[in-house]
Design goal:
Elements (H helix, E strand, L loop, with lengths): L3 E10 L12 H6 L3 E9 L4 E9 L4 H11 L5 E4 L10 H6 L3 E6 L5 H5 L7 E2 L6 E7 L6 E7 H18 L4 H8 L4 E6 L5 H9 L3 H12 L10 H27 L8 H10 L2 E3 L5 E3 L4 H9 L27 H6 L24
Parallel strand pairs: 1-4, 4-5
Antiparallel strand pairs: 1-2, 2-3, 5-9, 6-7, 7-8, 8-9, 10-11
């Protein structure tokens, strides 16, 4: 219940003609290549991948959704997905497991929106004055609807629509008025009765899965399979999954140490690669000489012991100091010698005798 699972999929190039996973989809036909589909579950609180599974590319996300939940034994938490993973595709799993819940958007042409007047917003979202919302319970169903309208996103969508209408010569006032009601809006469905601001914040965090996909394809360079038969694809994908888990554990560690604010992930990895130890004459292993700033990074990550800080100096004169003030008793014991008036005998600055120049 305390964890949000972000579920999404990505495509990987697979031009093999001997496995059952590689196939054409409507996207792949445009690109002219075969792909496989890989679904992921990402734990938002732990910032870590939980599971993944390969599916044929010509299989819809909604078709593989229930299989993904069943085979990976996902029985607790709140699944936050996009429009490609509707609740109806895995309805039996949500009914069978009471601790498993969902939060996902519905299509803008859904009948629920018009039936419950979800575009007639009733309040301003706490914490954000630019977002209005409405919350309604579906009649006869254990489901709540949450609608939101972001005024800044609405303005951006309207600007994009006007630009395309001008470019294509398709401007129509009636169409614009109809579109203006949906610009910047999103309607979420959930089987939990939660505050609207909690629902909006939970779904807005779903974009973290897009970062996962970007790192998976770019940083880890896992954008194609490079193998042929089914078992090789599955085994290769398992290795890629483990590498992605290590990547996000490193990112989490770097983030907790505050290093990502000053360095990129690539730069930190290059520093870790340079940190090596050598042993001479059967002695202890010693770190080879590296840049002092790199040493500080290794110490921040706990890979090297931090140097002991010198003890802080206490304020005032140290005990036994020669310049410490004398006690009143010592002062009273010393005799007081009064100085005679005039210059002392043998003084260098005494006046010269008359007649000398």
């Amino acid at each position: 219940m305390d964890h949000h699972l972000l579920v999404d999929g990505t495509l990987k190039s697979d031009e093999s003609s001997v496995n059952s996973l590689s196939d054409f989809s409507w996207k792949a036909k445009i690109k002219g290549r075969r792909d496989i589909s890989v679904l992921f579950a990402f734990d938002l609180e732990e910032m870590e991948l939980v599971c993944s599974k390969c599916f044929p590319e010509n299989m819809l996300d909604s078709t593989s959704y229930e299989s993904f939940i069943t085979e990976n034994r996902i029985t607790k938490g709140i699944i936050v997905a996009d429009k490609g993973f509707p609740e109806s595709a895995a309805h039996e799993q949500f009914v069978e497991h009471p601790d498993l819940h969902y939060l996902n958007p519905i299509k803008r042409n859904s009948k629920f929106i018009e039936r419950h007047h979800m575009l007639d917003f009733t309040g301003i979202l706490p914490g954000d004055e630019s977002i209005t919302y409405r919350k309604e319970k579906c009649e006869g169903l254990d489901k709540w609807l949450y609608s939101f309208r972001d005024s800044s996103k609405a303005a951006a969508e309207e600007q994009d629509w006007l630009r395309m209408a001008k470019k294509n010569g398709t401007y129509d006032l009636d169409v614009l008025k109809k579109k203006q009601r949906t610009f910047g809006t999103i309607v979420l469905e959930c089987d939990l009765d939660i505050p609207p601001e909690v629902a909006y914040k939970a779904y807005s965090k779903r974009w973290e899965i897009e970062i996962v996909m970007r790192f998976y394809k770019s940083a880890c360079n896992f954008d194609e399979t490079r193998v042929h038969d089914d078992y090789s694809v599955i085994g290769s994908e398992f290795c890629d999954f483990l590498a992605a888990v290590l990547t996000f554990r490193l990112l989490k560690t770097f983030g907790q140490a505050g290093l990502l604010e000053r360095y990129t992930y690539k730069k930190l990895l290059s520093i870790l690669v340079r940190a090596k130890k050598a042993r001479l004459d059967q002695g202890d292993w010693q770190l080879i000489r590296i840049n002092p700033s790199h040493t500080v990074i290794l110490q921040t990550l706990g890979l090297l012991p931090k140097p002991k800080e010198p003890p802080k100096k206490k304020r005032g004169r140290p005990k036994g100091s020669k310049n410490q003030p004398k006690s009143l008793k010592e002062k009273s014991e010393q005799p007081v010698v009064k100085r005679r008036p005039g210059r002392p005998k043998g003084s260098k600055n005494r006046p010269k005798p008359t007649g000398q120049s």
